[in-house]
Amino acid sequence: MKITPHNAGTYQVSTQNTGKNPKKELTTEKKSFQDSLVLSAEKDAANIKEANQAIGALQLMNRALKDLDGQLQNMINAHANPQDTQKQIQKTLNTTFNGKRIFDQDFSKLSSNIKLDSTGIKKYAQNISSTQDLYKLSSEIKKERNQASDAITILQNQLNSKLKTDASYDKLDPTKLGNLANAHNTNSLSLNRVSELLA
Fold first, then answer.
1. Residue 124: closest CA among 85, 67, 180
2. Over the stretch 94-113, which tens digit does the pLDDT of each residue have?
3. Are 141 and 68 in contact, with CB atoms under 8 Å apart?
4. C-alpha 182: how far from its chain's center?
5. In this predicted model, what pLDDT tens digit does every residue of 2-60 receive, in sequence order?
6. Contact at 8 Å (CB) between 145 and 65?
7. DSSP state, 111?
8. Which pLDDT does position 143 carry in this prediction?
9. How many CB atoms lie within 10 A of CB 61?
10. Distance (Å, whole) CA 131 – CA 108
11. Model confidence pLDDT, tens digit, residues 119-175
């Protein structure tokens, strides 16, 4: 009688292990590529959101400046006391959008083409003592309104370029359908072939 060990007949072939799993490496590379796509998409989404919020703030700034300029013109025409404008100017300068004061924001960080300097109004608003100062403030308001409008246009153009879709998605290219027409050629079907397909 022959006695054999319990694991007799079981052979384990050892292979040289390099410590690297090719499947794991492939999934890691794929995952890192997907992660970079996600990060890129998140960055683009954050930039788009920031630009949209800046456009909203600039539109609000433009309206506030328009209202303030109208009130300044009324005060100039009525020969009102220039000191009375301080309250209205402060109210305008404290205008907020999404909890942030719009005249304290630096919109030039969004694009180097934006030349808006919202601190100019603050300088003129602090030194109002005569009707001539009201004219200077009104002139500064008009200048900043133009700069705000230009900034809105610049940001909208940036958004449009980021969100622009490829024209090939808009219409169908008939040259790409050439092989499709051959696939649906009914002349090549025979009764025998149809029977085979239906069976």
1. 85
2. 888 888 888 888 888 888 88
3. yes
4. 44
5. 555 555 554 454 445 555 555 555 555 555 555 555 556 677 778 888 888 989 999 99
6. yes
7. -
8. 92
9. 26
10. 32
11. 778 787 787 878 888 888 889 889 999 999 999 999 998 888 877 655 555 566 666
Is the torsion defined by CA of 51, 53, 54, 55 positive or negative? positive
Which tokens is 143 given? 């200048």
User: Cα separations (Å) of 76 from 71, 72, 80, 154?
Assistant: 9, 6, 6, 34
Neighbours of 121 (CB within 10 A): 21
Q: Which two tokens stand for residue 99?
A: 């909890």
Q: In sequence order, what E strands does the chain have?
A: 96-97, 100-101
pTM for this predicted structure: 0.62
Q: Which two tokens stand for residue 139?
A: 């002139």
Instruction: With beta carbons less than 8 A apart as the criterion, state whether 63 and 128 touch.
Output: no
Give dist(CA 133, CA 38) in Å, integer.
53
Residue with tokens 């022959």: 2
What does 39-66 look like in DSSP terms, one character per residue? HHHHHHHHHHHHHHHHHHHHHHHHHHHH
Distance CA 54, CA 113 (A): 14
Rg of the chain's alpha carbons, rounded to an integer? 35
